[in-house]
Specification:
364 residues; mainly alpha; 22 helices; 62% helix; elongated
């Protein structure tokens, strides 16, 4: 599986800029993912939050030190449950508003590398708080909403929470952050939104269908693959490529009609190794067990593009191997002369892995 890049831990000084996130100097974060199992929770179940002015945590969260929480729990695999409840309470009720922003950043940063923290945050009502934040489309809530998308992206890495997220009704509020350009904060939120959708899709075919049915989400994601922002285009390409995984013929047909095949192949020729890698995987996925898409990929030059990429990126293992996998999915014995003349078979012999042997078998 291919995942979004893992977030860096929160700096000791919350005002320190994490340049990669594109967020402001005061409020910064980048999303990530990872995965393993799932559970099912009904949309009708009440959200667990730390809400209500009568909540027993109220006095404690009003004085709770966010910077202290961040320092104590940087790199900690399991944040104490009472601290998790307090930080989630600050996200929802903190005043002044800056405390809610800082609490959201701190919570985002404890989620990526810890399954225990994602599960504890869910038990503390984090999902309900994030949904509440994202449902507020007001101008005054814009910054907090963007940070909430980053936090949800990290939470969505937890398989046991994916169904809960999908049933919470939050997906349309995430997709509204999919924008190709704008401020640094807006572009960062766009990348986080695409990363969230990508993470939700992995190993969950029913969530793929839900995302695909959400307005113009697929066409918007495809537009984002053309973005000048590297984080946006790679997360969008990863998400659309993940939609192609599996045997959902109707979904592959929709992607075909929207022009996904030539878009992926054009991405193979971009000077962005991560995009080349993801586009190679996407071509492989959309063509798998689909004769029409294979024919379209060949028509738009995928064979030649893969051969060029294998040679140009021969020292970059994950790009070379993904391109070789894509070539294997398309090649047949009629291509033997072209493949031999390209020189890629001799090149692939030099590297470990099954690609040379598998492609050779199809050429016989």
């Amino acid at each position: 599986r291919i995942w979004a890049a893992t977030s860096k831990p929160l700096p000791e000084d919350l005002a320190e800029v994490v340049q990669r996130s594109g967020l402001s100097a005061e409020h910064t974060r980048l999303a990530s993912s990872e995965s393993d199992s799932r559970s099912h929770v009904s949309r009708d179940e009440p959200r667990r939050t730390t809400s209500s002015s009568n909540h027993p945590l109220t006095p404690a969260f009003e004085t709770f030190s966010i910077s202290g929480f961040a320092k104590r729990n940087q790199g900690v695999a399991e944040v104490p449950a009472h601290e998790m409840e307090l930080i989630v309470a600050v996200m929802q009720h903190g005043t002044p508003r800056d405390r809610r922003l800082r609490a959201t950043i701190a919570t985002t940063n404890i989620l990526p590398d810890s399954k225990a923290n994602r599960q504890a945050a869910t038990a503390a009502g984090l999902l309900g708080v994030l949904v509440e934040i994202l449902e507020d489309h007001s101008e005054g809530n814009k910054r907090l909403s963007r940070l909430a998308v980053a936090c949800l992206s990290n939470l969505s890495a937890e398989p046991s929470v994916k169904d809960m997220i999908a049933k919470s009704g939050v997906i349309p509020h995430v997709t509204r952050h999919l924008v190709p350009s704008g401020s640094k904060e807006g572009r960062a939120a766009s990348a986080h939104a695409a990363a969230t959708l990508w993470s939700l899709c992995i190993d969950h075919a029913h969530i793929k269908r839900k995302i695909a049915a959400e307005g113009n989400t697929i066409s918007t994601l495809m537009q984002l693959i053309l973005s000048s922002d590297s984080a946006i285009r790679t997360q969008a390409c990863g998400c659309v490529g993940e939609l192609c995984v599996g045997e959902d013929v109707a979904l592959k047909d929709e992607l075909f009609k929207l022009g996904a095949v030539p878009l992926f192949i054009a991405s193979l020729n971009q000077m962005d190794h991560e995009l080349q890698h993801l586009a190679s995987v996407a071509v492989c996925n959309i063509c798998a067990n689909n004769a029409r898409n294979k024919g379209a990929a060949r028509h738009f030059g995928a064979m030649e593009a893969f051969c060029r990429l294998i040679k140009d990126a021969q020292k970059i293992d994950h790009v070379r191997d993904a391109a070789a996998g894509g070539l294997y999915n398309l090649v047949s014995k009629e291509d033997r002369k072209m493949i031999e003349e390209s020189g890629v078979m001799e090149l692939l012999k030099q590297y470990p892995g099954p690609h040379h042997r598998l492609i050779e078998r199809r050429l016989l």
